[in-house]
Amino acid sequence: MRYIKLRTKITLISAIILIVLACTLTLISVKSAKKTYTNEFEMSISDGLSFKLNDKKIELGSKGSSNLGDILDFAGEVVKSLDKDSSDLTKSDSKKISVNQIFNNASNEFTKNSIIIMSALVILGIVIIYKSVGYALKPVRQLSKSMETINANNLCQKLEEPTSQDEIGSLTNSFNHLLGRLNETFESQKNFTANAAHELKTPLATMKAGIQVLEMEESPSIEEYKETVEVAKANTERLIHIVEDLTNLTKQENLHFTDSIDLADTIEDCLKELEPISKQRNVTLQEGDCEGVILGNQTLISRALFNLLENAVKYNRDNGYVYVTSKKEGDQIKVVIEDNGIGIPKEALPQIFEPFYRVDKSRSREIGDSGLGLALVRNIIEKHHGTISVRSCLGQGTTFEVVFNKEV
Ligand code: ADP
Asked: Cα of 34 to ligand 1 centre, how many Å?
């Protein structure tokens, strides 16, 4: 049954139903006909005319009655049509004819005809069903053929939209949506791999260049060695940073989400850690009203809030400020981090959560950032079933809003 085509399967099932129904109908009609035909029926003409059906006898008249002659003539005609040997019936005094044999023959004839007609109709029905199912499944075959042409290189291609809005239409639409989502994932996967390769290649190339310069020197000085080692150290740290961020981004296993996280405490710890870099640029760190406890992973939440606050300091201006609050709103807790820094251009906003995306690539690399910070933040927030959004105005500042859906 697994290898039988759908068209054949539907035809087979319909044929079985058709045969069962046709046989039942034929059987019922033959049975009821037989019941009628097998009644004991007798007609006698002697003194008068009488009909006997099983045990019931009907006398129609006696000799001498006014219309008997007509009745006798009529009976004679009937008998003649039933029994060819009774041509002289009207002249005989008494003739008893049993028509059961004739009825039996008629019954058999009826049964035979019924079976022949039923078989012919069933065969015709099966042919019609097979053709109709083939016609109905034609769009499915076409859809399947079009689907076969889709591969990793043409995921952006869409199947032709059907004109009808039946099941095939909605299947095509769903498939097109699926293709769209697959294409997006595939593209972002490709970008991610290309970006990761580029990010890892840059520090390695810098180290290699430093070593090659050193090799070209006949007798390099201690200073030159030290310089090369410094460059190698800085780049190795950068590589470690990238690899750590990448690992955190893809890490799934062994994570527990059972810590009671006091957001006020967590924010305070992050701000303390950021004090040294905020002092360098004279950026004020302000903690507004902070409340709320959520259930989750303390390390991850600390990491996410730290990244957001660190960005607010890093992408700030001298003498700027960072203002952070966390408020309960119904069942939700909203953490808002606001700064009056350099801001983000409008066109860059949809991409800032993508891995390795940086608004100002050279500047970000200079301060040693991987461009994975916000991707990691979004990943962590999503793991906690929260949402993150951003509003920004270039040159005026940026506000990140994180919403956690459940308070403990
Ligand atoms: P990076 O590691 O470069 O900081 P992120 O993923 O943390 O990468 O941020 C992506 C980009 O978003 C940054 O390069 C920066 O241009 C921009 N960005 C993030 N936060 C802010 C902010 N508070 N103000 C201005 N720009 C920001």
From this structure: 93
Q: Is 83 exposed, middle or buried (0-12, 13-18, 19+ CB in 10 A)?
A: middle
Q: Which stretch of 86-95, 217-226, 330-339 has the lowest confidence by average pLDDT?
A: 86-95
Ligand 1 atom closest to residue 374's alpha carbon, by position in its atom list: 6
- If you measure from the C-alpha of residue 132 to the centroid of ligand 1, how many angstroms do you get, rounded to a whole number? 62
- Average pLDDT for 119-133: 95
Query: In 10 A of CB 267, how many CB atoms?
Result: 23
pLDDT at 76 (0 to 100) = 64
pTM given for the model = 0.64
Q: Ligand 1 centroid vs 315 CA: distance in angstroms?
A: 7
CA dihedral 218, 223, 224, 229 (to 10 degrees): 130
Tell the residue number behind the tokens 């966390």, with chain if given: 326
190 Cβ contact partners less than 8 Å away, ≥ 6 residues apart: none
d(CA 398, CA 308): 11
Q: What is the largest CA-CA distance in the chain?
A: 158
pLDDT for residue 325 is more than 50: yes
pLDDT for the residue numbered 93: 46
Ligand 1 pocket check for 199: Cβ under 6 Å: no
